[in-house]
Amino acid sequence: MEECFGCWQEAKRADKVAAFLLALRTALKPEYYENISAVLKEVESASRLLRDLYDLFPIYQTRVPVVRYYLNIILPTFQKTMRDMLIYIDNGELPPRTQWTLMSQRLSDQGGMTLAQRFVMYIEALVQTVRLLSRCRITFSTLQPFGINDWLEIILTIIPIIRSHLVGIVARTQAGRREDQNGLSTYTLRCDRPPGSDCAAPSAATAKPGRA
């Protein structure tokens, strides 16, 4: 079963990446600890979820066709991210600080989000895939062709998952926009001049004397 082998292979790759990240966190100064730990935590969680899928496939063999489509989307993108990370953190010619800086900057530029945020999306997708595999009520045989009732069951199962996922993304996006707007409003109230100009009020020595 290709999906089963793919989950196991990517789990091993994630463990390898986690080991390199742990070594980087140990070698670098404490100022990098928080950022590296955020990525390391998500990589380890992804590895555990992939192993869970590997363990669940033999138990829910008749439900594998339901999640195959989603795994064919998640696993290739997850694999590419892992390989891109290993290009930098598995390069002994670069010092640890350069490894982390280059990897973090270049991978963050690819998707318009930080590396930790990218892994949060992977985790959410894998969690929903595990739930779909283990909680789906479909019990049809893999040799039996899909009927209209089977497709309706799949659709009714997937729609709430996708809806909750999209609601979470929209809520986080709106919260980020509100924070940006609040920051801009605060700056406007504090200083209505262009950035870089002196916003301080004139001192008593430089102020023009008022008329008596």
Automatic annotation (TrEMBL):
Q: Which domain of life is it from?
A: Eukaryota
Protein name according to UniProt:
Uncharacterized protein
